Amino acid sequence: MTSEELKNLQKTHFLQHKQNKEVLKSSENQQKESTKVKFISISSLSASNFNKIENKNVKRKKLKIVSVQTKIKRRLAANGRERRRMKNLNKAFDNLRKYLPSPENNRQLSKYETLQIAQSYITALCELLK
């Protein structure tokens, strides 16, 4: 990775972090507004309507309200896990490439090519053992 690519990556990361902070601030304001409770007059409800409302509340499971801040934290954590997973997968492919015959033009094999050559190589080695 060149220094210019590294700088661009750092800038991108910084801008994403800045945007996340702004979203967190605006989500806190939205959360405050959404927690306001609305009341209805019980006298305006007939007995049958009241029973319907009461039964609906009993049957429904309580939904957990997840704040936007929590959602963002979860998303960032998931992104980090996925980044780590891909990094480990790429390391595994690099290790596999070390044990395979290298191509003549010294270019790095794609993941697909690596798997295809590994399969052919293992098959050839098995044939040698027979």
From TrEMBL:
Residues 19-33 have a biased composition (Basic and acidic residues). GO terms for cellular component: nucleus. It comes from the Eukaryota. Residues 1-33 are annotated as: Disordered. Residues 73-125 form the BHLH domain. GO terms for molecular function: DNA-binding transcription factor activity, RNA polymerase II-specific; E-box binding; protein dimerization activity. InterPro entries: bHLH_dom, bHLH_transcription_factors, HLH_DNA-bd_sf. GO terms for biological process: axon development; positive regulation of transcription by RNA polymerase II; sensory organ development. SMART domains: HLH (SM00353). Gene3D superfamilies: Helix-loop-helix DNA-binding domain. PANTHER family: BASIC HELIX-LOOP-HELIX PROTEIN NEUROGENIN-RELATED, PROTEIN ATONAL. This is BHLH domain-containing protein.
